[in-house]
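Sequence, please.
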């Protein structure tokens, strides 16, 4: 696999309302655990829609991994211009900092948000440009925005070689427990 779409829950869907929430580091560890073997196998690009939540936490992980994997490239492909303009200032600063670390950034539509067609156009592009998807989505725990990516990935997998790699809530919980045990030892 050369190009990987990485996405998952938005922060608010996980009840995360600031960057200091403990769950973020466990989600990031799960993403890193999945990315490393793919990078060893030749993964070249990680592409994300750039929504505030798993998408951006994955970008942060990817930027850190570039020190070890200098040929690894990261792209954020948004649906419309200035997706962060209505975010709180701290989230805007975080987003702008991450944008400086990516290799490619573009918006499918150069206009501000004007309708669902922009989201569909972005998703069409993301699926056309990738060979697989890594996503944090656990329908047994909570539905949410990743549901549509999962449905689309399953359809694409039926028609062509498209790899689906999931991260479950149980996996995140196991990482959290392991990390917390380390502090006790």
């Amino acid at each position: 696999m050369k190009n990987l779409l990485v996405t998952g829950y938005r922060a608010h869907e996980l009840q995360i309302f600031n960057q200091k929430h403990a769950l973020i580091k466990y989600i990031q560890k799960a993403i890193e655990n999945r990315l490393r073997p793919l990078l060893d196998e030749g993964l070249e690009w990680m592409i994300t829609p750039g929504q505030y939540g798993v998408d951006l936490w994955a970008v942060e992980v990817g930027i850190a991994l570039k020190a070890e994997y200098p040929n690894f490239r990261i792209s954020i492909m948004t649906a419309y211009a200035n997706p962060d303009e209505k975010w709180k200032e701290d989230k805007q600063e975080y987003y702008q900092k991450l944008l400086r670390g990516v290799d490619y950034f573009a918006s499918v539509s150069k206009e501000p948000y004007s309708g669902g067609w922009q989201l569909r156009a972005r998703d069409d592009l993301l699926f056309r440009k990738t060979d697989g998807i890594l996503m944090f989505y656990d329908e047994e725990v909570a539905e949410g925005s990743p549901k549509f990516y999962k449905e689309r990935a399953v359809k694409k997998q039926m028609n062509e070689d498209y790899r689906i790699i999931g991260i479950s809530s149980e996996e995140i919980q196991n990482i959290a427990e392991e990390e917390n045990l380390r502090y006790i030892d």
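The radius of gyration is 16 Å.
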